[in-house]
Amino acid sequence: MTELRSLVNNQHSARSRSLWTNAFHRLVRNKKGMVCLITLVVIYTAGIFAPLVAPYGYDQQDLNIARQAPSWEHPFGTDRVGRDMFSRILFGIRTTVIVTVAAMATGGLLLGIVLGLISGYFGRLAEGVIMRVGEVFLAFPDILLVILIAATLKPRVTDWVFHVEQSTGIGGIVRSGFVDYLVVFGALAIVSWVGMARVVRGQVLILKQSQYVLAARALGASHLRIILRHIFPNLLPPVIVMVSVGMGSIAGSEVMLSWLGLGVQPPVPSLGAMIFDNGNIGVLRSDPHLLLFPVATVAIVIFSFNLLGDALNDALNPRGR
After folding, report:
1. Residue 293's pLDDT band (boundaries 50, 70, 90)?
2. Which residues contact 24 (CB under 8 A, 6 or more apart)?
């Protein structure tokens, strides 16, 4: 019995290592995927380290250089009150990084994977409840549901944080943008788990009938061990693809919320707010850099995530091409 268990584990581990090695080599050979990956790493790294990379503060004003065209000193020009657009876009990327990573980690990964595993593995009542709740969320357009949740929760969360500030004497929590970040990524997380859970559930229904899972069950392995040791590692390829595509979608939704005035509020920079503030034909004619650079940044991020998702799908699932 011990030898059989060891044989099953060794074969499963060797197969997993081989699949991941081959997938990595296929991804490296995909020039389109590598360009997108490098682009996203550079953009997200610049956003994370915006306070160190940005040449100016995001709220540093100089009216003498207002609406200045791009130059060596200000690569993306300056806005209406003389703030450096390059610095503000870097801090706007930081806002996108915080929201997308937090929303994907809590919604797409934590809720989506856990609920999908429970639904697919245990089935019956758990599957019925989880999938029916997911269908209720899918009955509404994603962006409209996110707008509804954000608009409903934001005043209540803001009042609660103000009460905390008054009770504890700790000031500046609301002004720092904490409430905006919390509401935006919370609304996106509530909506983003459904797609991931459905994908995970479908994969679990297939994997739990595989030979190595049946062998582990025959050897007396617990449900937790089967899920963590044999099922979860084999879920990673489709999950990685879903994360890449989902990050682009969440980034677009965050920009849309800020554009509608429901996202991160000034003085914290946001790409969506920059687009909203300069989104008219007059600005496009007189100072096009105020609109084109934020729009181009958003387009590059979303486009790169989508193309990277295609490349990852080709690398992790070559038979699906």
Report:
1. very high
2. 315
Which strand (E) or helix (H) includes residue 246? Answer: helix 232-259
The pTM (predicted TM-score) of the whole model is: 0.82
Measured distance CA(310)–CA(306) in Å, rounded: 7
| Residues ≥6 apart with Cβ < 8 Å to 263 | 150, 180, 184, 254, 255, 257, 270, 272, 273
DSSP 141: -
DSSP 8-state secondary structure symbol assigned to residue 58 = T
How many domains is the chain built from?
Answer: 1
Question: Which amino acid, 82?
Answer: G
Q: Which of 133, 108, 132, 312 minimizes the C-alpha distance to 200?
A: 108
| Contact criterion met (CB below 8 Å) for 160 and 80 | no
The DSSP code sequence of 20-47 is HHHHHHHHHH-HHHHHHHHHHHHHHHHH
* Residue 162 lies in domain: 2-63+72-320
Give the number of other Cβ atoms within 10 Å of residue 298's Cβ. 24
Cα separation, 42 vs 47, in Å, equals 9
Instruction: For residue 290, count other CB atoms closer than 10 A to its CB.
Output: 22
| The pLDDT value given to residue 18 | 67
- Residue 126: give its domain's CATH number: 1.10.3720.10
pLDDT in tens, 155-210: 888 888 888 777 777 767 767 777 778 888 788 888 888 888 888 998 888 888 88
Q: In one letter, which amino acid is 265?
A: Q
